[in-house]
Amino acid sequence: MKRLQLATLRIDASRKLSFTYRGRTLEGVHGDTIATALYANGVRVFSRSLKYHRPRGLYSLDGESANTLMSVDGVPNVLAETTPLRGGMKVEPQNVVGSPERDALGFLDRLDGFMPAGFYYRTMHKPAALWPPAAGVVRRMAGVGKLDPGFRAAGRYEETYLNAEVCVVGGGPAGMQAALAAARQGLRVVLLERRPWLGGFFEYRAPLHERARRLAAEVAEAGNVRSFCSTALIGLYNDHLVTAFQAGTDTDPFEERYVEIRAASVVVATGAIERPLLFENNERPGVMQVGCAQRLARTYGLLPGKTAVLSVAHDLGLECAADLAELGLDVACVADVREEGQDESLVRALAGRGIPLLRGWVAAEAKGRRAVDGVVLRSLSETASKEVACDVLVASAGVTPLAGPVTMAGGKLAYDAHTGAYLAAELPPGLHVAGRLTGLHDPAAIEASGRHAGLRAAEAKLEEPRSLPGPARGSTLVMAPVEGRKAFVCFDEDTTVKNVRQAVEQGFDRPELVKRFAAVGTGPGQGGIPGHNLPLLLAELLGEPVTALRPTTARSPAVAVGLAALAGSRHDMCKRTPLHDSQKASGAVMRRIGPWQRARYFSADTTCRAEVENVRTNVGLLDASTLGKFRLWGPDAVKALQRVYVSDMSKLKPGRVKYSAMCNDDGCVVDDGIVVRRGEDEYYLTTTTGRAGETVQWFRYHTRYDGWDYKMVNLTDAYGAVNVAGPNARKVLEKVTDADVSNAAFPFGTYREFVLGTIPVRAMRLGFVGEPSFELHVPASFTQAAWDLLAEAGAEHGVKSFGVEAQNVLRMEKGHLIVGSETEQRTTLHDVGLGFLWSRKKPEMKTVGAVALRQTEDQPDRLKLVGFRMDVPGETPRDGSIVVDEKIRGYVSIARYSSTLGQSVGLALVDAPLAEEGTALKIYEDGCKGKLKRARVVSLPFYDPAGERMRM
User: What's the whole-model pTM score?
Assistant: First the structure.
């Protein structure tokens, strides 16, 4: 087709792009979508419908139905009308047997009488023997598109996470004005627009497109507005979390990008979509929306056909008719369902171009087998009708606000009789709406509402109100005076007015129920086509007021999102300690442990024998920054500690360290750590790495009804931690501090505060690895400097770094457990040998888990934590290997060869009868061809049973 030359175009006709369709090489231009390029090449039937295999064509250009789903470069279900054309694309139609024009399954269209609403529910379950063979047929016919199991998505997929004071969803005139108004208050603004450019419905309208581009230029010049085009909303959630995905352009380094925004407030300015007109064959190729016809011409330079008839219910339809006639389309007539109320300037424009205007008339039937070749028009009074030849039927029953994001965020809609639409009636705090979403139609009023919403989102002084037109009066027409056998409410699922009537006759009287029973809006387009019409049609069929019904709730994802986009580019989204870079530079092998990257080894030897031996005989440094660290203070702080920890915290003296554990209501261990009393009502506590992110919520949850006066702050990322461990640890520490760190002044189990040079330190004498150990907590920004001081001071003693695996071996030799390794969801405090921590003398504090601990203390049939020694010294089972006799009796939580002991030892959770010292254990692991490894239960700890070394 020859392209029009217009100022509104978004294509570059000088840049040709070749692609293949059904094996033929075709040509489009830069700026085309796949659908517009096919349309320019004469393609009118894009696909076949899911159930009846009816021909389907270009209806909208915003993906409101599955009409243009195609396979592109091996990827099924690509929405051709919104996907930009790229050179070399291989495009194939879907859901056709043969060709889109001649589908061998087209005969199913004549069998609709055998497939009423709820057909699958009502017919295929009886007799029961029918279902197995029927299931195979249904599964083969259900769904659209085929994916090669060996397919791999090409290109780069990224993600970005943003924070903003204001997020604006929708880049039309209202959205741009909202973004600019908030930005002028000095706020950071993120603006999302699904189309490749800003402008909304101003963009393709001759009188307004220049205004759209001026506003877009202002947005581009605003330094604190970050706009994302080609970015579709996925979801809008509580606390103003917005998710979206962005399709990459030729100049972007990614195919798609996941976008997540945390905003203080959100403005929804998503505009309106057209409400389909319900008449016979209303989805025949050649039937399209007003906006689709006008955008084809104004944005892509393509007249939609040769001769057009318009059946509309709003002034945008009259404007479109006059505009397309001006551009050279033969407009046979315009049928307007309204008897009066048309904009007289548009009426005069039609008359000036010789276009008949039929007031109170509507399209009743689209004629033509594979595509429109005429239309039957009928007066609403049904007293007159006429048939008009045409190849394009532009049909619209009105406009409906695109309010899905509002309901996603928890807003409520209510039917407005004036506009004939469902408008936002209740909004959650911080959510604002603007533009056509509020029922406005006048351009100046739309822009003003955007500015108003932007100022409200910014909590700024509102501008003086101006006298501007309010919401426009809308059409309440539901359907043409037809039977509705082939008047489609939902294009995706081939659901007709007749099917909705059948659902009502079966007793389904609410949109949510009819949606599921008759499959209205359950296809790829979700509620785009049927969303507004369904409650209007139901109200008419039930004889109920429209105000009693609402559209079905929109849910995330608002648009189809590829799994590759959600997966991202395989970035390891992790936390890093302040020592990460220096550890890696010194040869550490980093591994993911929970949310952190940590140094696992410092050599190629995964047994870490040298690291372990150095700590046992000399001195080592460990990065322990991942431990949870918390400050707890206030008059009732000790009460909170008493509630969540099993030990009695009321007797904790300043300067002492207390080891304790937390349990859940079942008495199962969920965390352990150290508590220090720093002052009268102030405590410092540590937790396991995995529990650091949940501890504050744990305290709050279990004290939520008590009204206690205390405060808590998470310092995990604010402090780093270095563990200096080994017989020479004190010698190293003495070289970098003037504080007395002798055993007499700083004994095992105590806490001190001093400085390393000028670095403030919170220090604890602990014994997790079984050697003299100083755990030093320092502000995160000083952690590297503290490490360097210690490493320099320890050089003469041969200090070496050791990683998590060496620590694992050291603590195992000492018999110390790790929550999550030696504990699981069934193990109580008693089961893992920590029952001595539980104080039975504080029942008034209602310690979490105390009731269960009392009930399970003497239960015989439980898992128990034991130590074991392998019968063959060097034979070491893998972690997770199972303990068996006639059945599974437990499992190995950790086992390692101990060079210190010259023996393979480990810890295991086993049934209580096997926990007695001296009991023989049989261990099974994969790959051993059924041969069992043998061990014997021994007492713990394996190393230094009296604990003398760690107290040196």
Answer: 0.73
